[in-house]
Amino acid sequence: MPKRRGFTLIELMVALAVFAVILIITSMAIGGFLRMGSVQAQQNTLQQNFRFAIDSISSDARQAVAVGVPNSPDAVLAMSDSVSFKIPEEGGFQWVRYSVKQVGGSFELDREHVTYNENSTNPAWSSLPDPDQQPVTEHMPELLKVYFIHSGSRLFVVMVGRMTYFGRQQTVSLVSLVYARGTSGSGT
Known about the structure:
The protein has 188 residues and is of the alpha+beta class.
């Protein structure tokens, strides 16, 4: 009858050490993968909101007969944290203004409007949305600021956001050029 032999204590300790090293390497790889997924999700959110905002701003800019930025109606090059478009409509025109609002601990890009007619003397901006109108961007802690740079028929939109990479915060910016057709450049 042959002798049965089991593992020695040294063989068992070596096997456990190899298993522990493999487990540590695997958990580090999974952790890195999850962190990269979080970074990618932040980037996607910021880029999707920026694209949607640019589409909305572009739509209003194409219809506008005038583009304005506050406190600089006659400037050749003007920069502001809000922009207004004068859009013709039946019986008059409306001004549409884009600006960043803080909501709790996050920010959103809002679209406000006011309608003028020939009898309007000093109508106020209305941030109350129409039933089918929503903020241009969702509440997002990644959004810090939006700047509008206006020169003639060109409007540069600069969206500044914050991303968290592996525990460090980094500021990023996305820039887009929008052309406003047929604008006279008068400000609000």
